[in-house]
Inverse folding.
């Protein structure tokens, strides 16, 4: 299975394990890379020196390529980027910010840059900024959701029509059939997040993993658009958000309710009532917690069998 994505990252299969906050530590990233895909560390929930520690541990756990996902609105962004260079990381996925700010600086140091977008408009801006590839993520996803709520199956062909650089699909992809569907529409690879939350190597709390496995259709909702759109499992905190919306809150009132470390409380510490439980709609198709290598093989096996079924007509 060789294409521009596998060649760009020097990986066996065109699958990227998303760099998710509170889920994507060195155990998950190294296990993903050792399975033939690209593992990513999630810098968004790491202080600079914690990121350094995870990079160093990841290098010891795998000799395969891996990268770091960096939200560009991160408060310690300069320190984060310096550590990435110092630790000789060769792949960076950027999100939640202007790719022009760091792309050239990183590429001058021999680092591949991929930017996550949620619209054609931002895909074109990322291409103009010179990134090496683009992740186009539909609103089914748990993170980096677009305010326009464009679905993945709509977004991918629209972005593909406008860009020339490699395209990775994300949002609502956890199965081989989902992977095949987006690649038929023009993607050359997929980024998978939610499925890897429910992995043995994910750094998420066991409580959160079990809630993800139990989730059914309709158990998640995109909300908090005024701050940063995020898809949440419906729990006590979600109900409090909905109750506040009925009163027509302003941004300050929403910020006050959200408070600090709400995502950490839910996903990392396992507070299922008061925590922010971020996950994609595809959680309704996730039914078990498995080792990463089994998840990867499940996706590939279903991809190949579905391809045979579809193209026999």
């Amino acid at each position: 299975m060789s294409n521009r994505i596998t060649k760009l990252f020097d990986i066996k299969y065109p699958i990227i394990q998303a760099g998710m906050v509170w889920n994507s530590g060195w155990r998950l990233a190294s296990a993903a890379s050792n399975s033939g895909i690209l593992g990513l560390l999630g810098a968004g929930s790491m202080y600079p020196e914690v990121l350094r520690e995870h990079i160093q541990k990841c290098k010891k756990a795998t000799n395969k390529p891996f990268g770091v996902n960096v939200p560009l609105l991160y408060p310690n962004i300069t320190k984060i980027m310096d550590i990435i260079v110092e630790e000789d990381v060769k792949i960076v996925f950027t999100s939640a910010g202007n790719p022009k700010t760091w792309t050239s600086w990183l590429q001058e140091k021999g680092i591949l840059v991929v930017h996550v977008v949620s619209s054609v408009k931002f895909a074109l801006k990322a291409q103009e900024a010179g990134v090496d590839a683009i992740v186009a993520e539909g609103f089914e996803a748990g993170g980096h959701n677009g305010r326009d709520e464009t679905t993945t199956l709509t977004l991918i062909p629209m972005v593909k029509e406008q860009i020339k650089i490699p395209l990775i699909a994300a949002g609502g992809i956890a199965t081989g059939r989902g992977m095949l569907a987006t690649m038929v529409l023009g993607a050359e690879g997929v980024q998978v997040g939610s499925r890897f939350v429910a992995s043995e190597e994910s750094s998420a709390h066991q409580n959160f993993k079990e809630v993800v496995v139990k989730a059914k259709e309709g158990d998640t909702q995109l909300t908090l658009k005024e701050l940063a759109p995020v898809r949440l499992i419906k729990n006590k905190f979600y109900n409090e958000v909905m109750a506040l919306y009925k009163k027509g809150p302003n941004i300050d009132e929403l910020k006050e309710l959200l408070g600090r470390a709400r995502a950490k409380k839910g996903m990392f510490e396992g507070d299922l009532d008061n925590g922010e439980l971020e996950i994609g709609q595809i959680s309704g198709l996730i039914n078990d917690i498995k080792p990463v290598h089994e998840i990867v093989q499940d996706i590939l096996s279903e991809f190949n069998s579905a391809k045979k079924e579809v193209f026999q007509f």
Observations:
- Residues 198 and 210 are 8 Å apart (CA to CA).
- Strands lie at 15-17, 39-42, 66-71, 91-95, 112-117, 133-137, 167-170, 189-192, 220-223, 230-233.
- The first helix runs from residue 4 to 9.
- The first strand starts at residue 15 and ends at 17.
